[in-house]
Amino acid sequence: MASNNIKLLTEKYITGFCSINNGIVAKDGINIFAHESDLSGLLLAAYQHLQLTYPKFYKMDNLSKLGWLAAEFLLKDTFNKTEYQPEDIGVILANANSSLDDDVKYWESIKDVASPSLFVYTLPNIVIGEICIRNHFKGEQAFYIQPEFDTQFIAQQVGYLLDKNIMQACICGWVDVFEQDYKAVLFLVEKKKTDKSVVFSAEKMDEIFNKD
To answer: What is the reported pTM?
Structure first.
């Protein structure tokens, strides 16, 4: 949760945000897709809605699918990555359950034959890898485990990396899955101001995150 204001050296802006929660995909506060189903059905329907051809999607676990889809919706039609070098774009994420959804499934699998395809996803930062592979991002990456979305901590990490010119743009936010309990809220943070951008702060992330 956000608490005290964080002093940032240079202005940074949230130039877009996306959420996937309760069967609804929203971008910049506007619902753009809804599907009444379990999590697997929702993720597949959202992927089909994007009309993409990316066979690797089908091999991902639910955590990676959720984060990957949220990033796709976040960046679609509004982010020109060619304005940056691949090394200038980073990803900073957090959740509460780590890779527990896959850990449980993998534990069940070893009672018969251990599943390598599940074992691959028993690390939460794999979702960052999937996002970066898709978009050719090569900047700083970090995944934090927190009991709840600590927007002040995330704002501090992102702010430092942008202030020090380690990154010029960043996707940050929350991606969490355990069984049918899920939520993703991603923010695109840049140094440039746009018509729809708002000043990047822990308080603003908190406000957007808690609207769902």
So the answer is: 0.92
